[in-house]
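Hello K.,

You asked for the raw outputs rather than the summary table, so here they are, unedited. I folded two proteins back to back in the same session to keep the settings identical. This is the first:
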Amino acid sequence: MLVALDANRLLNNGEPASLLRWLDGLNLGAGDRFLHIGCGVGYYTAVAAEAVRPGGHVVGVEIDHHLAERAKRNPAKYENVEVISADGSEYEGEPFDAIFVNAGATEVRPVWLDQLRIGGRLLIPLTVALPPDLRPGWFGEGMDVGTGQMLLVVRRPGEYAARFVSWVGIFHCVGARTDGGNDLLTHGFQRGGHQSVRSLRRDRHDEGAACWLHAPHFCLSSVV
């Protein structure tokens, strides 16, 4: 069930069934280093802390100072959890085995890709902004929300595998959205074919038939 984090802003802990399914898709295991961007008050950060025991470490990053302070207190019993109040779109730490971005982006930030170890997994919602008249009632008026697809990226030697795994409706990720990126995603989803995506490219190349989303700093491609 949904639990209010800040009733005045209509913030909640997200749909638990979806969040746990996404965490499960990251294949967290003992000894993993896990980065949780947009950790809220730390509920799912604590779930991840259990999944990486023994020997693992979890870093939760939350841009909202008040939520971050609660997140520092809530999982206090977990010695393997560290919570930082910062902009997750710019946070840079030691390499991670898994990164979960818990807010909607239009950009796959280079800093996230750079922090993945070989074999590391990045799960990120790529979303397009919804106009106020099309937002579901449970989001509330004035909330910055979007819908799209969850993208799973896996770093391999010299390349990144990528595929979309599920639908998502979620609040925006501060620092990871641009108007140009929103337009590109909107056209991509309207055109269809996102199921064909199999890789994320970071090399410079001309847009071609295999490019589903050809963005300035990354490309989602059907080429394996």
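The second followed immediately with the same parameters:
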Amino acid sequence: MSFSNYKFITFKSSSGQGNKSGGKDGRYATNLIEMTVDGKKDFILEVYRCPKLGTCSEDNATHIGTRNKIGALVLNNSANDTERQYYNILNKDTKSQANSIKPSGLTASEQTTYNLRAGNGSQALINSTTSDGVTIGDSIGTQVGNLLGDITTTATANAEVEFRDIDVNLGISRKARFSYGNYYYPADLQTNKQDRIRFEMKYTEGTIVNATIKSGVKQFQRKTENIGGSVTLPIVTGIADINEVDWEGAKLNPLQALGAGAALRAFDTASSSEKGVQAAIRGFGGAAGSLGKEIRQVGGDLKTALNVYLAQQAVGTQNLLSRTSGAIVNPNLEMLFSGPALRKFGFTFKLSPRDANEADQVRKILRFFKQGMSVKTSDSNVFLKAPNIFDINYQTFDGDTEISHPSINKIKTCALLACDVQYTPDGTYMTYDDPSRTMTSYQLTLQFNELDPIYDKDYTELDNDQDNTIGY
């Protein structure tokens, strides 16, 4: 299908300041898809990049984005760096294009819907509509209150509640760089087969939270997009990893155990009762009575000690039992698992360029990490976007094929927490006599932190437990 309505968009003219390589422009078309939902017309507006010459159709155009339910243009993976950099211009010009293809014969309600989908709805309507097109009424508070009320009512009636996954897309444009070169140090690392470590970047647009407790469903799914470019460096000495989990000392004395056991029995009774929570509340009274009965049944000396302990707890006095009797209630102290830990990685590289080409590579390598870890801005002052995140891989060669190193640890996606550059690591200020006055040596220290913990299943997914690699 050919698009009858398309237009040229100039992002930056050839005479624009700082643009020595010419202008940036493109030809774009908006495709309208009409549908009927519950007897009413609804609309989807897609944006395509057309060839700069000739006709423009779905066969030769590239789909680069779709307007969401409140008219914000959401770019997909096919959008290029220029379109992301000049998102505001692209969004504005294709929005006006959407107005020119509005169907005729719409009812007043359908025209309002079309204006919203095209990004030209009234601000009040946009403010009261979610990105999925659901009108939320007079206030967010009212909507949340109604939702919680519905859930509470439904749950009380023992009905099954279906929760929606949390996937928020605010349509906030990310004003940041989307591509770099592929940089190597030393320069001959690009052509030889020396073992190496490679750093690549991507960025995250948030996380989808699956509202479920079902087995086998990944609850958190990070949404990421790759950024072009990489840095490849030789593997240095001192590489290491420390795998940790958190264990803590925990106590459960006999009285607490008795109380917990009685409470669990009350809840077990409630779960099998039609009266549910009410039965559990009544069960607490019985649990307290059972605990008192247990205390009355113990021997005289032990009962006296327990009475002192209970008096100590009642008034908040410390060590009353130990002070009066020289004894304490057995705390049953043991180490219990309390959660996973996130690993940290540090790398230090000495970069001493030997010629102009390596000097250029070293400067770009430093820029890669410094700019990549910087906080990203948006079109407004209201929001900031997260820095880029990094994939780190140790590489070796199997013949002529580059592969992941099987005998060094693997690293999950990391955040770069610190980038320390020493410009005089040899203790002397000295530069080359090149136009950039490159320092004769740099020391680069990087501190990374993994974003996700390591799980047993991660090892299984590597090689199906064939133990072909060390793993994480």
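DSSP finds eleven helices and 17 strands in the chain.

Happy to rerun anything if the numbers look odd on your end.

Regards,
P.
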